[in-house]
Amino acid sequence: MPLGVVTLGTTGLKVTNLAIGTSALGSMPSVYGYEVERERALETLRRALDSPLRMIDTSNGYGGGNSERLIGEVLRERDGAPEGMLVSTKVDPDHTGDFSGARVRRSVEESCERLNMDYLPLLFLHDPERVTFEESMAPEGAVPALVKLKQEGVVGHLGVAGGPVGLLERYVRTGVFEALLTHNRLTLLDRSASSLVDECVRLGVSVLNAAPFGGGMLARGPHQERNYGYRRASPELVAKANAIAATCSRYEVPMAVAALQFSLRDPRVASTVVGVTRPERVDQAIEMASYDVPEALWPEVASLAAPPELWLW
Q1: Domain locations in the chain?
Q2: Residues 204, 15, 78, CA angle at the centre, nearest 5°?
Q3: What gap in Å lies between CA 192 and CA 59, rounded to an integer?
Q4: Ranges of the chain with pLDDT below 70
């Protein structure tokens, strides 16, 4: 799949169909099982900015704000983002769990300061399952605050990012959001977000698909990584991953390539967001995107997806 520039639906924002995710760069060992040294993170971001990729995604809460701080440091070195580079971020609750409208405003202020940006072109409501839908939509809730920030010109466009499929469907149906970011739920193993993505297509909401490797299992293989979606995978899910790995091996295609291109080739997905923690991983992701995959592989691996009862939903 060649790299290309796409438009994020009604936002009009131009991005590449492959984007860089930075959650692990914030160094979150409790999630990923390892730390990322500061200088390595900075070098990774520099490589990303020098690459042909044109989107970097982060969040207020990644590493307690460390991901944004690192991005801001590199952006200051260069007097801002390169021409055409989209830096997106997300609002998060504070350490007390407050995810009110007032907290959303503080989250945006923190992000702007860390990123050295006074305008956020694309801002996501992040993991909204941390409050009820009713709380989020209430007059003093997170969603009205986001709408107000957009009206004030602090934010260009709004998206919603998270996991639980049913809840995210409720948010995209409000008409507030122009983009959806889903993770770990549209992969070689798990298709739980497929109905949500269909709904986004129907509503004109642009889709970004993150974590196509399932947190590592579909990149390193289940013999090295036994977690899927940041939790321990069941023996049944591991067996499915092993079957996919064996099929990829028979076609002489690295499983990571198949996992990435599975997302890239989905016409419903505008851009696929891949987390990187080393400079060389940026180059490798670009190379994997253009790897020549036999067409006959795709129906075989499609038949090996886990059954719905094993999906994250």
Answers
A1: 5-310
A2: 145
A3: 24
A4: none
Q: Are 15 and 6 in contact (CB under 8 A)?
A: yes
Classified by CATH at the fold level, domain 5-310 comes out as TIM Barrel (3.20.20)
User: Torsion angle of alpha carbons 205, 121, 264, 168, nearest 10°?
Assistant: -40
Distance (Å, rounded) from C-alpha 309 to C-alpha 40? 39
Contacts of 201 (CB under 8 A, 6+ apart): 207, 268
pLDDT in tens, 52-99: 999 999 999 999 999 999 999 999 999 999 999 999 999 999 999 999
Bridge partners (DSSP) of residue 155 are 120
Which residues, 6 or more positions from 162, have their beta carbon under 8 angstroms from its beta carbon?
Answer: 125, 126, 127, 128, 129, 168, 181, 182, 183
Q: What is the pLDDT of residue 28?
A: 78
pLDDT for res 32: 81
Q: Residue 219 belongs to what H/E stretch?
A: helix 217-220
State the pairing for strand pair 227-228/231-232: antiparallel
> Token digits for 183?
């993770």
Task: Name residue 183's amino acid.
Answer: H
| Cβ-Cβ contacts under 8 Å for 188 (sequence gap 6 or more) | 218, 244, 255, 258, 259, 262, 301, 304, 305
HSE at residue 186, side-chain half, CA atoms within 13 A, is 30
DSSP letter assigned to residue 240: H
Residue 100, pLDDT score: 98
